[in-house]
Amino acid sequence: MYEALATQGKSSVHSGLAGIDSAKLKKLRSSHLKECFNLIDEMRHKLEFVARIKGVSFIDDAASRNVMSTWYALETIEGKAIWIANGAAPSANNVSQLKRLHSLAAQKVQAIITLGNSSVYELVFGDANIKVCSVETIGEAVSKAFYSCSENMKVLFSPAVENGISYETQGDSFKHEVNEL
Known about the structure:
Layout: H1 2-6, H2 10-25, H3 30-39, E1 48-53, E2 56-60, H4 67-76, E3 81-86, H5 92-99, H6 102-108, E4 109-115, H7 119-125, E5 131-135, H8 138-148, E6 154-157, H9 167-180
Parallel strand pairs: 2-6, 3-4, 3-6, 4-5
Antiparallel strand pairs: 1-2
């Protein structure tokens, strides 16, 4: 039972262990728990490993549509990353929300590539020695990230803010573009 969780990533382990605690409180048998966990499919677009190409790992976290979810994604990955995010309009709310990521991003993020407007990211992360640039498409973002990475780095697609496009559509596009490399 625990092995099935372990292959699915840290967030699935946390959710699964909470489910086990709940099930034990309800006095469910371990055999029933094991059956349930064998039926669990990895949550799509939530810290989902996509591919490893020439030593660069691509992670789809398109379901992270708020800053705290992106914070968790950055906290979870090991090593340096290039972060692909949705662009954001300059507003006091966007600035204050993204500032929550400042110290963590300064430790883990080498560059931020935004899909659209990058001005808020430039404002928030400009003093953290993180390169920030904007592109128009996910294909451009994936290509730019891949060719900017060194071996053993990660490319994390974690939008952090809403942009009106469903996370399923963006996540599927990200995975398609990675597989086209």
